[in-house]
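Task: sequence design from structure.
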């Protein structure tokens, strides 16, 4: 997983607030918060791995003290502007060790950049190392093998300074026998002077069956379960994978 291989998180990072606004995360973040609260004793501190531009954190910080980790320094800069009251750390979710534990660990869709089971296990090991006894881990892939469907999506918005973005994404599974899917992004970017340009980005993402998610969490030491998302949005509900670390 290399940040330089994804323009989304490198030279296009400053456009992130126009590609995906924090308001779009309110519903999902509220459901995540309900699961993050289930540590014993009550959750106060949360580590988010793969926090990106900080859109989930924008909502979760109202309930918890957050530490945010992302591989991309450019995306962390976006998040610092949105969430100056949160701690930010640069690091790879497969290898980072902060030397302390948290009441809960949250990993949103950045977990999908784990494209094989070995990488998934390494990321879950990081989650375990930072989750205190009695704590809870919540992992949220966009798709699992049982419900993946090829999709297209579009969006984007404008800024008061004249900048604007429109994008098209196209997700497919070129080889159903492996553990990956591919999402192609096309961006039309308008700058403050009215000039426009086109950018393209390709993302290879991991796709695992429910059994693999639960097994990897269980092998790490968690008591694992799958929870169907409750959402008011017009889309397929996601599966949230929840692991409780025994003890506490």
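Answer:
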């Amino acid at each position: 997983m290399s940040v330089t291989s994804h323009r989304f998180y490198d030279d296009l990072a400053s456009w992130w607030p126009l590609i995906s606004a924090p308001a779009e995360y309110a519903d999902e973040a509220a459901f995540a918060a309900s699961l993050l609260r289930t540590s014993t004793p009550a959750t106060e501190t949360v580590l988010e791995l793969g926090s990106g531009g900080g859109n989930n954190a924008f909502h979760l910080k109202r309930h918890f003290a957050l530490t945010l980790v992302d591989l991309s320094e450019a995306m962390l800069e976006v998040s610092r502007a949105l969430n100056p009251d949160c701690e930010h750390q640069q690091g790879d979710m497969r290898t980072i060790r902060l030397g302390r534990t948290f009441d809960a660990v949250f990993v949103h869709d950045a977990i999908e950049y784990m494209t094989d089971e070995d990488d998934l296990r390494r990321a879950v090991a990081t989650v375990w190392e930072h989750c205190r006894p009695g704590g809870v881990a919540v992992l949220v892939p966009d798709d699992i093998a049982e419900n993946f469907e090829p999709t297209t999506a579009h969006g984007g918005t404008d800024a008061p300074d004249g900048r604007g973005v429109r994008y098209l994404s196209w997700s497919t599974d070129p080889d159903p026998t492996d553990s990956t899917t591919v999402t192609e992004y096309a961006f039309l970017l308008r700058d403050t002077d009215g000039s426009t340009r086109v950018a393209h980005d390709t993302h290879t993402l991991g796709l695992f069956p429910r059994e693999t998610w639960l097994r990897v969490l269980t092998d790490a030491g968690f008591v694992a379960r799958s929870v169907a998302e409750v959402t008011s949005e017009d889309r397929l509900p996601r599966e949230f994978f929840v692991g409780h670390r025994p003890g506490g």
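Residues 3-144+209-244 form a domain with the Rossmann fold fold (CATH 3.40.50.150).
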